[in-house]
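Tokens for chain A. Residues wanted.
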């Protein structure tokens, strides 16, 4: 606010600016300011309105969510939403499911307009009708009433004549204007359109519901409908619904004479218009539009179930009129449905490479989006429980894009009397070994806790033919050991004939064994033996990836190889030490550690590397400079998860007691000099436990062994690209934690400091950077944002 401006003036200015930004964002699709700037203006407005409540008006951008939940203001407790009689009925659309139906629609239109249209040519062609081509959003039709430019009522379609009053909820949809822009709008204007839930929001909402064990929505339409009919508008607001307009219901006064001109006018008044909107002359152009959109459908950020064609001229629309509850001048050309109902015939269990026993739905075959679906993944038993699935149930199947078909919901009302529960087998369906539920082991606050995981595993490992086959297929694959000529069918034969019982057996196969296999002759046999021989010299990263450690993909395998340098180190690494690697969290660290704890896995690795099998790792070396530099004593204390000891208290402790021995030996008096009594007691309690002391010493010993200990001579950074430079990180980084950014900069030779000075080479400023960024500007120090940092790291071969 400037000195000469009153609060009322500033409030008006802020509202107008925020409205402009909203318009640019939602209608023009050209955001003019970053979100942070919008939020700043919004906060300023909110603060001014709090100071001056008398200046609050309903159309202020801060007033999208009303203060009271609807249930609190409803006159009758058993009626959720008040009924609204539409000024003009909200009609539905006739559907065309194929080209033939579209041709017939166009013929009916031309016949209906025979007197209006010019005659066709001698060959029976034309005249052609002009259509407006629109998307059919898979959302919820709403009516929005504006009086003197202000939104006064929002209603659902309901039965077409009477809908429900959802004013408080539509107000929370940010792309719906609370007040019209520009001028020339009718004093009373009813706009119609579709409220929808963008795909990302739908996925986020369902992921949250799954995480909380709640019910998911079968599709974005149900999610939008469920969200707009929330009794509490603040819940609707959190669902981030959106809106596109598709026409005018009622208007006092004149509007332009075509649908497309009317839509353009609505856009200028602040209503979002779908950017795929087009004009087509003649039915062939409509069919081409349908094909274009069908190709784009999966990439659109919202779901559509078809396209809509409307006769563009309003006088023609009036001439054509209505049939029952549908206009004769419009049609929805539908895409194949993405969801269908079918019956769950059975649930079978598949065994994967890591032994995970996964339920798979066997379905009564059904066409979904043009493909016959007879199987769908059920992920795990938690998902079966969450869906409340029983064999014999009728289920909703959804197939979107290239995604594997999913069972979205059970239709509970259709459950037959003889429905059976889905039971996880106690024995592996392939090898008969026991099936065990995975245990999740977590260390927190110095205590180990075990909980039940969602995954069940067959304990048979390579004894289980299913696991063995998958393990070999993975081991020989192109990104792993890259053994050309060993396709899935050949692996199956090798395993079925008992020639291969572990990956090591591949390296002792002989000519006479291979030529016996189906499809092999002399040349192909020699070629395969050649490929096997050539694969004996893998890089460490390939080899680690080929082992098929659960949760270790190609990137993690590369990281393990690059950071720890040697297979022996990877095999021995304690989970706590593994978590020093950027991007390796506790769960992955435990998976890696458990894999190498397993005697059988170690035996296979040893066999592969013995002279008889001859696998020779090519590029083993030292621990990387990046990893060697990142371990600190205070960091280790934090990893031990001692109650109430975080990075700051750990740093304080280490400043006073600079070795593990001293910390273990410290008494309460020593500790209280730098810690609160609660923290001091926690440290004492922790190190009183023999197992905790042992673990801390083991970690320290391993850090020493790997050359990662804080007292080890640090690796020279000479020759590294950022050697000699001091960098500072400030603000919140979105793509990586600050620890990771620090480790990555250090791996390039930089020193990362906490404070900005004239010696600072560069400051990386994340979101909401504050005083350090200001200091950098003051001292003329170079500043880069996260994007630039990611690019710099990528230029030096370090991925985000
Ligand atoms: N794009 C579009 N969707 N949609 C749905 N236009 C459109 N028109 C509709 C409906 C139900 O109804 C007309 C009768 C105006």
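Reply:
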């Amino acid at each position: 606010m400037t000195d000469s401006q009153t609060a009322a003036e500033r409030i008006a200015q802020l509202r107008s600016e925020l409205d402009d930004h909203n318009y640019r964002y939602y209608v023009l699709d050209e955001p003019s300011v970053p979100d942070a700037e919008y939020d700043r203006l919004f906060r300023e407005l909110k603060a001014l309105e709090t100071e001056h409540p008398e200046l609050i008006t309903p159309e202020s951008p801060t007033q999208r969510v009303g203060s009271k939940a609807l249930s609190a203001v409803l006159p009758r407790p058993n009626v959720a939403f008040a009924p609204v009689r539409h000024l003009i009925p909200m009609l539905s659309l006739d559907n065309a499911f194929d080209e033939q139906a579209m041709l017939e629609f166009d013929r009916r239109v031309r016949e209906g307009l025979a007197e209006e249209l010019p005659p066709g040519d001698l060959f029976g062609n034309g005249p052609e009708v002009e259509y407006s081509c629109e998307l059919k959003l898979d959302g919820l039709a709403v009516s929005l009433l504006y009086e003197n430019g202000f939104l006064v009522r929002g209603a659902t379609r309901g039965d077409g004549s009477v809908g429900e009053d959802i004013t408080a909820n539509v107000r929370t949809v940010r792309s719906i204007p609370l007040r019209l822009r520009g001028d020339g709008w009718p004093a009373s204007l009813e706009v119609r359109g579709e409220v929808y839930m963008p795909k990302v929001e739908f996925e986020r909402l369902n992921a949250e519901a799954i995480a909380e064990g709640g019910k998911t929505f079968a599709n974005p339409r149900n999610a939008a409908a469920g969200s707009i009919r929330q009794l509490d508008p603040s819940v609707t607001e959190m669902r981030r619904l959106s809106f596109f307009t598709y026409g005018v219901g009622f208007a006092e006064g004149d509007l332009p004479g075509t649908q497309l001109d009317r839509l353009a006018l609505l856009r200028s008044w602040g209503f979002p218009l779908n950017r795929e909107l087009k004009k087509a002359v003649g039915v062939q152009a409509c069919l081409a539009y349908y094909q274009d959109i069908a190709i784009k459908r999966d990439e659109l950020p919202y779901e559509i179930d078809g396209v809509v064609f409307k006769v563009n001229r309003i006088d023609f629309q009036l001439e054509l009129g209505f049939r029952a509850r549908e206009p004769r001048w419009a049609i929805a050309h539908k895409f194949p449905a993405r969801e269908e109902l079918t019956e769950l015939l059975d649930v079978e269990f598949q065994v994967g490479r890591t032994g995970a026993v996964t339920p798979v739905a066997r379905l009564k075959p059904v066409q979904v989006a043009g493909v016959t679906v007879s199987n769908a993944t059920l992920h795990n038993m938690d998902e079966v429980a969450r869906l409340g699935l029983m064999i014999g149930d009728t289920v909703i199947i959804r197939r979107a894009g290239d995604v594997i078909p999913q069972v979205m919901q059970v239709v509970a009302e259709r459950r037959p009397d003889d429905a059976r529960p889905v039971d996880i087998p106690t024995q592996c369906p392939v090898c008969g070994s026991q099936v065990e539920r995975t245990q999740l082991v977590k260390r927190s606050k110095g205590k180990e806790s075990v909980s039940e995981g969602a995954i069940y595993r067959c304990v048979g490992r390579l004894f289980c033919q299913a696991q063995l086959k998958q393990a070999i297929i993975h081991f020989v694959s192109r990104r792993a050991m890259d053994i050309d000529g060993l396709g899935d069918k050949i692996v199956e034969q090798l395993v079925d004939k008992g020639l291969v019982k572990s990956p090591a057996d591949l390296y002792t196969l002989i000519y006479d064994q291979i030529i016996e296999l189906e499809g092999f002759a002399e040349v192909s046999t020699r070629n395969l033996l050649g490929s096997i021989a050539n694969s004996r010299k893998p890089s460490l990263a390939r080899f680690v990836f080929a082992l098929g450690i659960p949760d270790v993909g190609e990137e993690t395998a590369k990281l393990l190889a690059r950071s720890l340098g040697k297979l022996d180190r990877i095999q021995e690494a304690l989970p706590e030490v593994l978590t020093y690697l950027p991007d390796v969290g506790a769960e992955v660290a435990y998976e890696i550690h458990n894999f190498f704890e397993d005697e059988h896995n170690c035996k296979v690795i040893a066999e592969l590397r013995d002279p008889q099998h001859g696998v020779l790792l090519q590029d083993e070396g030292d621990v990387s400079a990046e990893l060697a530099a990142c371990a600190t004593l205070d960091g280790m204390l934090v990893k031990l998860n001692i109650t109430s000891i975080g990075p700051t208290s750990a740093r304080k402790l280490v400043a006073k007691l600079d070795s593990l021995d001293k910390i273990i030996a410290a008494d309460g008096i020593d500790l209280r000099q730098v810690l609160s009594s609660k923290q001091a007691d926690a440290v004492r309690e922790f190190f009183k436990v023999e197992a905790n002391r042992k673990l801390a010493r083991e970690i320290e010993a391993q850090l020493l062994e790997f050359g990662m200990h804080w007292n080890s001579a640090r690796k020279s950074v000479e020759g590294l690209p950022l050697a000699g430079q001091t960098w500072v990180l400030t603000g919140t980084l979105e793509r990586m934690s600050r620890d990771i950014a620090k480790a990555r900069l250090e791996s390039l030779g930089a020193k990362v400091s906490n404070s900005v000075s004239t010696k600072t080479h560069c400051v990386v400023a994340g979101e909401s950077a504050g005083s350090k960024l200001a200091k950098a500007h003051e001292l003329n120090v170079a500043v880069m944002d996260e994007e630039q940092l990611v690019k710099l790291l990528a230029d030096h071969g370090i991925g985000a």
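Residues 91-93, 134-136, 141, 246-247, 308, 327, 330 surround 5U1 (CB under 6 Å). The first helix runs from residue 7 to 27.
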